[in-house]
Design brief:
Number of strands of chain A: 0
Strand content of chain B: 15-25%
Oligomer: heterodimer
Structural class of chain B: alpha+beta
Strand content of chain A: under 5%
Number of strands of chain B: 11
Largest interface: A-B, 35 and 33 residues
CATH class of chain A: Mainly Alpha
Largest sheet of chain B: 5 strands, antiparallel
Radius of gyration of chain A: 16 Å
CATH architecture of chain A: Up-down Bundle
Number of helices of chain A: 8
Order of helices and strands of chain A: HHHHHHHH
Helix content of chain A: over 70%
Order of helices and strands of chain B: HHEEEEEEEEEHHEEH
Largest sheet of chain A: none
CATH topology of the largest domain in chain B: Immunoglobulin-like
Structural class of chain A: mainly alpha
Number of domains of chain B: 2
Number of domains of chain A: 1
Number of helices of chain B: 5
Radius of gyration of chain B: 23 Å
Helix content of chain B: 10-25%
CATH superfamily of chain A: PhyR, sigma-like (SL) domain
Distance between the termini of chain B: 72 Å
CATH superfamily of the largest domain in chain B: Carboxypeptidase-like, regulatory domain
CATH topology of chain A: Butyryl-CoA Dehydrogenase, subunit A, domain 3
């Protein structure tokens, strides 16, 4: 497998940026945090590029999410899951989208998993590896999230 | 019956693809910003350093005139065994050559060092003559900044950032590039070049100036060829920043002089 050079990294990052950025916005409800996380992931890739360019979106999403989690962990100490603040403009933007309204019913952790599955197309195994949780947890979270969204009658499932 | 998963995937893609992207120039992290205090401090220190250099030069020049001498160093062409020496580990070093009254005053090349991490690894910066690649000058610099690392102690980053200076450079035209001196497995490959990409993209970007996005977005149109640096008699050429670590293209195409030994 050819090594990912710096120039190639720039190219791959640019290609993956739109999808990963949107996924992070949907997961965090905060555009600035999404962008900060991606910037950190870009720098991480310069220092320690992934071993190959397969599923680069998954790699960037995982690293960016991990980076934003430092902020998340701080926030968790002060607010219960699901009640984290989001940036108002992003929340308003997402509220105009059907998916945004559904995601608003979920906790940030649930959103991170659901978005990875339904938008980035990661398998449950890949999500489990990426987020450092058991596959069963991913599966349960997806089920709970779907149930929650159905419960509110927001989707016809 | 429709697959509910398929329906959800369609819904997610349809809606989330509507999320507006940030402007292209925000896709990558901006160069670290300086506070106004840091900027002022850097300006004052730079101005002081320039003033000190000028004062020293005037004093030296006056002293030489009194003794009716010419400060001069021979070109390394005169003697291959007099190839410029490198000193360790000092960010400022000169080629070791014996004085001779027949050669013109030597010049210097200086610039800032950079590496895409929170430290700058130990480097050897080379200035290799365009006309004759056997002629070169070099300086070794220590590792700067980064996390504490007992196996590789770091110098603290000076105000204004890590820099190098190669002195004693005979008038001529040179290519400037730097090699890492450590064996870090994450070595970006290098060498780091003073290339057109630095001049066209990186230097304007760091100065907060506009730069051509097409040639600077890391794509195949980026020009990573070396930029010749001309040093005049007694001239100090600054801003020769070997920042371009994406030299693999040049290496592959055989456009780089070999590393001097």
């Amino acid at each position: 497998m050819p090594e990912i050079t710096v120039e190639r990294w720039h190219e791959l990052y640019d290609r993956a940026f739109p999808q990963v950025y949107r996924a992070l916005v949907a997961a965090t409800f905060d555009r600035e945090r999404a962008l900060d996380g991606l910037h950190d992931a870009f720098e991480e890739g310069l220092r320690h590029p992934p071993s190959d360019d397969r599923n680069l979106e998954g790699w960037l999403y995982r690293v960016a999410l991990r980076k934003t989690r430092r902020g998340l962990l701080r926030a968790f100490r002060e607010a219960p899951m699901g009640e984290l603040g989001s940036d108002d403009q992003t929340a308003a933007l997402l509220d105009r989208l059907e998916v945004g309204r559904l995601l608003a019913l979920l906790t940030e952790r649930q959103r991170a998993i659901v978005v990875a599955h339904y938008y980035l197309g990661l398998s449950q195994e890949e999500i489990a590896q990426a987020l450092g949780v058991r596959r069963g947890t991913v599966s349960a979270t997806v089920s709970q999230s779907l149930a929650r969204m159905r419960e509110r009658g927001a989707m016809d499932g | 019956m429709a697959d509910p998963d398929k329906g959800l995937v369609h819904l997610f893609v349809r809606d989330l693809d509507d999320i507006e992207l940030p402007p292209r120039d925000r896709w990558r992290p901006a160069p670290r910003k300086e506070s106004s205090l840091m900027k002022t401090t850097r300006f004052v220190l730079s101005a002081t350093a320039v003033a000190a250099v000028i004062a020293l030069a005037l004093i030296a020049s006056a002293g030489l005139r009194e003794r009716n001498q010419v400060a001069a160093t021979p070109s390394p062409l005169l003697s291959p065994t007099n190839a410029p020496a490198t000193s360790t580990p000092s960010p400022s070093s000169s080629a070791s050559v014996a004085p001779s009254p027949t050669t013109p005053p030597t010049g210097a090349i200086t610039g800032a060092l950079s590496y895409p991490s929170n430290f700058v690894p130990p480097l050897t910066v080379y200035a290799v003559s365009v006309a004759d690649q056997r002629i070169f000058y070099s300086v070794q610099t220590p590792r700067y900044g980064g996390d504490p690392n007992p196996s590789s102690p770091s110098a603290s980053v000076p105000p204004g950032g890590a820099t190098y200076t190669i002195t004693g450079v005979a008038p001529g035209t040179y290519y400037v590039f730097a090699y890492r001196d450590d064996n870090d497995p994450n070595n970006l490959g290098g060498p780091a070049l003073f290339s057109k990409f630095v001049v066209t993209c990186m230097q304007p970007s760091r100065a907060g100036l506009p730069y051509p996005s097409g040639a600077c977005d890391g794509g195949p149109t980026a020009d990573h060829s070396l930029v010749p640096v001309t040093v005049g008699s007694g001239e100090k050429v600054s801003g020769i920043d070997p920042w371009d670590w994406t030299s693999f293209q040049q290496v592959q195409q055989g456009n780089l002089p070999p590393r001097p030994r």
